[in-house]
Design goal:
Blueprint lengths: L8 E2 L1 H11 L10 H7 L3 E2 L5 H7 L8 H8 L3 E5 L5 E5 H10 L1 H6 L13 H10 L4 E2 H7 L8 H14 L3 E2 L13 E3 L11 H16 L4 H8 L3 H10 L3 E6 L4 E5 L14 E3 L4 H4 L15 H4 E2 L2 E2 L2 E4 L2 E10 L3 E8 L5 H18 L5 E5 L1
Parallel strand pairs: 1-8, 15-16
Antiparallel strand pairs: 2-4, 3-4, 5-7, 6-7, 8-9, 10-13, 11-12, 13-14, 14-15
């Protein structure tokens, strides 16, 4: 194994182009939504339209029904997974992600004095049975009220743990573009409950992550999954086709040998990123400069929010917002810096297509640049 100082060095622009290639943001792909979700290592789903916008930016000819159909057929699941946040995942890979991220989900926001996972097993089993039909968060709160402690902070965390670590998922309608109502949770069908062996689960998650976000550090992988480092490092050691690099600051990076690493000067088209887009969230906070310049971080990420953004030359260069009525729909560009004429024209062209996708029934569509 080569010494760290002997590893090939990847520049910031090389890492940027690698990320764009994995995220399907260099060229729209002609693949189905389920395959895309697998290759992208799931899709952030906190805001209902976000997965649809994310796929529109990444897949050629994507239409809303291309995702809604697989959701309704049970091929795509909405669940709390990485970092205890909502994601869309393929049904085929749901069990692996659920197992690999369980400890991280359970530990998220856990207050001092909170019980361990084993101590809540009885409550989780009861919640799982209670959710044989869809239940709201408030219904689950009332159901576990007798078993929850009197301390209000712990009671709220018991509810959080019941929703995120008991194995329940969102009902199908909750993953639709139009969903704006209170979430309802349901126990997954039997075919989704068979857990893989832990090593197999961590291997799949690590491989999917590198395929979607690499080359990356072990810390990036741990930050994205919310998992502890040891099982992730062990997975990287088991995967035979892992290559090692280092960045310009000397940090060790891991990647799949055959994953794309385009040249730094590869052309990057204008692209719009969804709210909470994983292209921004896929690395440790200090490493997001491979797509989000440090000087713009506070304008994009604050509190628990990650705003919609657009890319120029592969890097975040501004935010966008959109509004529509039956009469008119308008997408507005909010650049962080002066945008050149040709780049602005490309953004307007791309934006006009996005506003039609977002508000197909409006009579007129436009972009405010």
């Amino acid at each position: 194994m080569p010494a760290k100082t002997d590893l090939p060095v990847l520049t910031l622009r090389q890492l940027n182009r690698a990320l764009l290639a994995r995220q399907m943001l260099l060229t729209r792909q002609r693949i189905g939504a389920v395959e895309a979700i697998e290759r992208l290592a799931c899709l952030q789903g906190q805001w209902a339209p976000s997965p649809y916008v994310a796929l529109w930016s990444r897949l050629a000819g994507f239409k809303r029904d291309d995702l809604t159909g697989p959701i309704d057929k049970g091929l795509v699941i909405k669940a709390t997974l990485m970092r205890a946040t909502l994601h869309l995942v393929s049904a085929k890979e749901y069990a692996a992600y659920a197992l690999a991220t369980l400890d991280g989900r359970f530990a998220a926001w856990r207050p001092p004095g909170g019980p361990d996972l084993a101590a809540l097993k009885d409550i989780h089993d009861k919640v799982f049975k209670f959710a044989t039909k869809p239940r709201t968060r408030e219904e689950i709160r009332e159901f576990i009220a007798r078993d929850a402690p009197k301390d209000e902070r712990l009671r709220n965390w018991y509810l959080f743990a019941a929703v995120t670590a008991s194995g329940i998922i969102w009902e199908k309608n909750g993953a639709h573009w139009e969903h704006r109502q209170l979430a309802r949770f349901v126990a997954p069908p039997a075919r989704l409950r068979k857990a893989p062996k832990p090593d197999a689960a961590f291997d799949l998650v690590a491989r999917r992550y590198l395929g979607a976000f690499g080359p990356s550090t072990v810390g990036d992988l741990a930050n994205w999954t919310g998992c502890r480092v040891p099982p992730l490092r062990a997975a990287l050691e088991r995967i035979e086709d892992v290559r090692r690099f280092r960045d310009e600051r000397g940090r060790e990076l891991f990647d799949l040998a055959r994953a794309p690493r385009p040249p730094a000067d590869t052309a990057a088209p204008a692209r719009f990123l969804a709210r909470f887009d994983a292209a921004i969230l896929g690395h440790d906070a200090a490493e997001r400069t491979r797509i989000l310049p440090a000087e713009y971080k506070k304008q994009v990420i604050f509190s628990a929010e990650v705003w919609t953004t657009f890319l120029v030359d592969g890097f975040v260069a501004g935010r966008w917002k959109i509004a529509g009525t039956p009469k008119q729909a308008v997408l507005e560009l909010l650049p962080f810096k002066r945008i050149g004429k040709s780049d602005k024209a490309a953004l307007v062209d791309e934006g006009e297509r996005l506003v039609r996708f977002y508000y197909p029934d409006s009579k007129t569509h436009g972009v405010k640049a």
